[in-house]
Write a structure and sequence with these properties.
Elements lengths: L6 E8 L5 H11 L17 H6 L6 E8 L5 E8 L7 H9 L3 E7 L6 H12 L3 E7 L8 H12 L7 E2 L8 H11 L12 E10 L3 E10 L2 E2 L3 E4 L5 E10 L3 E4 L1 E2 L4 E6 L12 E4 L18 E7 L5 H14 L4 E7 L3 E8 L2 H14 L4 E3 L6 E5 L4 E4 L11 E16 L3 H10 L3 E7 L4 E9 H4 L3 H8 L5 E12 L1 E8 L2 E2 L5 E4 H18 L7 E7 L2 E8 L15 H21 L6 H8 L5
Parallel strand pairs: 1-3, 1-4, 4-5, 5-6
Antiparallel strand pairs: 2-3, 7-8, 7-15, 8-14, 9-13, 10-11, 10-15, 11-12, 11-14, 16-18, 16-19, 17-18, 20-21, 20-22, 22-24, 22-25, 23-24, 26-27, 26-28, 26-29, 29-30
């Protein structure tokens, strides 16, 4: 039987780039979980995208055996979590499977915005938190100052913070001892019925769905029949095991363990993250508290470049959704782009990662439409509609008002850049609710602003203004009425629905000019002049003209009467008029990408 007093389940949480994955590497090295010859940097970041960008995208579990100073051997179940604001949902799911969290703070950079929100997440889940000061070997490390920040901002006692260098391994053994002393072991279950919480899953082409789960009570072994409590469906377990960090088969999984289950689940939609697994013969009476339903904040259309890839794109998205519950999609069609899917994301980085994964892992060639948020439209007859696609916005005459989603953002930046930062927030229609001084060199701004304004390049501008020192975290707040309009882009008098967007009236003209200009550069010239126009309610607010190609039809005329040349030019003019009537403009893929990148202000 599993001795629960020798088990510790914990996560590593931190702001992006504070050294979570490197610390996990050192822990695996010290516990000899991975042979030295197989060791490489950021071992748990198995996805190519994670290694390239140097960020963690998915939470990765690993089981380690640690021989402590007291002579006992402990089982550590560690879950490495992402640090970027778009993936905080991954963090909240991982924390549900743990009793404790290691909070890593960079000793040179100090407490950042994501550190604050991750600490709140851990506190809300009632976890034991061990503060860790990482990168103490850095010349800029200021341990006293950062310890003070942990106490002032996070209200966590920092006198017993563990000081480590994940890079060199200094202090990591003391941290492993602290995990034993300061993180509670799993609580014994009140009854013996089996209950396992599904905190992640992935699709394996050869074995079907692989479920990542934390077993809160009972046991699971191959041959058992399990029931998914949300659907009532039954499956037979083919294999159980733990991550070391590769999947390692075990005969049985016992209470308190974190591991995987492979059952005869073929379809990606048959299991949801947050579900509870229980034995069919003696089912649990109630499910484990799952996760709060996550709602996508950003919507965009994703379309295959080759129409024949439509079915493949749908199947690929189904498999991706299994691995990422915060991603949603439904079929839609566009006049300009054909058949595709309306997809929901948590943020722009999330959207970028999903698109990149579709391209790499499923070998698809795709394009996307302009990203939008969900607007609430209040009609004059009292009806309320939620619109995530500008094309479905009702006629403006029947609308009472439109409400847009607002966020509460926490921005931490050096005091030197405070003026520029405030200007950026004002530019984006935000208001600063609170300003707190952190330690004389940095300030924490609490702002209230529209989500739409943060969407495209706010994060880039934030980093540019602050020379890379500012950090930001945000959470959804509420809806506020606003003066919003739909702007259409017309090419050769035809509305291209993929370029339509809903935006604030004060920004419409500037944005319209910007979009027309960028399309002028990427749409190839035709045999006739093409007008690129931005319009609101049929009224043109910006225009650019793509000049026509002009073939020199008079090249063969050597001297002679001018009327001959005129005749040829007139004939050419007539031909172009005719072409203009029947000519459709072909819009290249680069044009859609260029429009997304025209937000540099």
């Amino acid at each position: 039987m599993n001795d629960l007093s020798l088990v510790r389940n914990f996560s590593i949480i931190a702001h992006i780039d504070h050294g979570k994955s490197t610390l996990a590497d050192r822990m695996m090295e010290l516990t000899q979980t991975v042979e030295q010859r197989k060791m490489k940097e950021q071992l748990l970041d198995s996805m190519d995208l994670e290694r390239e960008r140097g960020i963690t995208i998915k939470a990765h579990p690993v089981t380690m055996q640690y021989k402590a100073k007291d002579g006992k051997t402990y089982t550590f179940n560690l879950i490495d979590t992402p640090g970027h604001v778009d993936f905080s949902y991954e963090v909240s799911r991982s924390l549900q499977a743990c009793e404790g969290a290691i909070l890593v703070v960079d000793a040179a950079q100090g407490v950042e915005a994501q550190t604050v929100s991750n600490t709140y997440l851990a506190t809300d889940n009632g976890l034991d938190i061990i503060p860790v000061l990482n990168k103490i070997e850095m010349p800029l490390a200021d341990i006293d100052k950062v310890s003070q920040q942990i106490e002032d901002i996070l209200a966590i006692e920092a006198t017993d913070a563990v000081q480590v260098s994940a890079k060199t391994g200094l202090g990591v053994d003391a941290l492993l001892e602290a995990v034993i002393e300061r993180i509670s072991p799993p609580e014994p279950a009140r009854d013996s019925t089996t209950r396992a919480l599904v905190f992640d899953s992935k699709y394996d082409a050869f074995r079907g769905v692989v479920i990542y789960m934390r077993l809160f009570s009972g046991t699971l072994r191959a041959g058992d029949r399990v029931q998914v409590m949300s659907t009532g469906e039954n499956y037979e377990i083919k294999e159980v095991g733990v991550f070391t960090p590769e999947m390692e088969r075990r005969k049985v999984l016992e209470e308190g363990s974190v591991g995987y289950v492979i059952a005869n689940i073929k379809g990606a939609s048959e299991i949801q993250i947050g579900d509870t697994l229980t034995l069919t013969k003696s089912p649990a009476k109630e499910a484990l508290p799952g996760f709060k339903e996550i709602h996508p904040m950003v919507f965009s259309g994703i379309y295959p470049v080759e129409t024949s890839d439509y079915e493949k794109l749908g199947a690929s998205m189904d498999k991706l959704r299994l691995n990422d519950a915060s991603f949603s999609f439904q079929a839609e069609s566009s006049i300009a782009l054909g058949f595709g899917f309306r997809c929901g994301f948590l943020g722009l980085l999330h959207m970028e990662i999903i698109m990149e994964r579709l391209r790499r892992e499923y070998n698809l060639d795709i394009i996307s439409s302009y990203p939008n948020v969900v607007y609430r439209v209040v009609m004059k007859n009292g009806d309320v509609k939620e619109i995530d696609n500008p094309m479905y916005l009702p006629d403006m005459n029947s609308i009472e008002h439109i409400e847009e989603p607002m966020i509460t953002a926490t921005i931490i930046c050096p005091t030197d850049y405070l003026g520029d930062m405030m200007q950026l927030i004002m530019e984006r229609r935000g208001e600063i609710r609170k300003t707190d001084s952190i330690d004389g060199t940095r300030v924490m701004l609490t702002c209230y602003m529209p989500l739409n304004e943060v969407l495209i390049d706010f994060y880039d501008r934030l980093k540019t203004i602050s020379r890379g020192y500012a950090s930001m975290d945000y959470e959804y707040s509420d809806y506020q009425p606003s003066e919003l309009v739909r702007m259409d882009i017309m090419i050769h008098s035809e509305v291209v629905d993929a370029f339509s967007s809903i935006l604030h009236r004060s920004k419409a003209e500037f944005r319209g000019r910007q979009m027309c200009k960028s399309l002028l550069e990427v749409i190839p010239r035709q045999a006739f002049a093409v007008a690129v126009q931005a319009a609101i309610n049929g009224k043109i607010i910006a225009r650019e003209t793509i000049k026509a190609y002009r073939k020199d039809v008079t090249a063969k005329c050597y001297g002679g009467d001018i009327s001959r040349k005129r005749k040829l030019l007139e004939r050419q003019k007539e031909g172009k008029k005719k072409l203009k009537k029947i000519g459709k403009v072909n819009i290249p893929q680069e044009a859609f990408i260029a429009v997304l990148k025209t937000n540099k202000q």
